[in-house]
Amino acid sequence: MFNQYLIPANTKRGKLILGWFRPFDLALFGSGILVSLLLLAFLQFDSTISIIIGLAPALITGFLVMPVPNYHNMLNIIIEAYEFLTNRQKYRWKGWCYKSGDKKRK
Questions:
Q1: Backbone angles phi, psi at 58, to 5 degrees
Q2: Per-residue pLDDT tens digits for 15-49
Q3: What is the Cα–Cα distance from 28 to 36, expressed in whole angstroms?
Q4: Residue 31 C-beta-side C-alpha neighbours within 13 Å
Q5: What is the Cα–Cα distance from 14 to 19, expressed in whole angstroms?
Q6: What is the pTM for the complete model shown?
Q7: Are 96 and 87 a contacting pair, CB within 8 Å?
Q8: Beta carbons of 17 and 26 less than 8 angstroms apart
Q9: In angstroms, rounded to a whole number, what is the distance separating the alpha carbons of residues 44 and 105?
């Protein structure tokens, strides 16, 4: 047992609210619920479409802050996919032999 350390697997979850949410996630979800409540208060429910429009902000923000395994939440997955697709995809070699070797190669 000497020189062996036990590190809990959930150390990051201890920094989150209720073990799942960052303050930004709760603010985003709260604003979605607030907008939905305002829409539900001021819209007339003549059809199913108006009900869907009224509930859409809460449903969309709820989807974005939904916890996902191996990631934090859906918003995190979307941001990482956007950054991957918009950043440079071809990387130049800058290893140990980058400046040595052929002078003709550029």
A1: -70, -40
A2: 767 767 788 888 999 999 999 999 989 888 888 98
A3: 12
A4: 8
A5: 6
A6: 0.64
A7: no
A8: yes
A9: 70
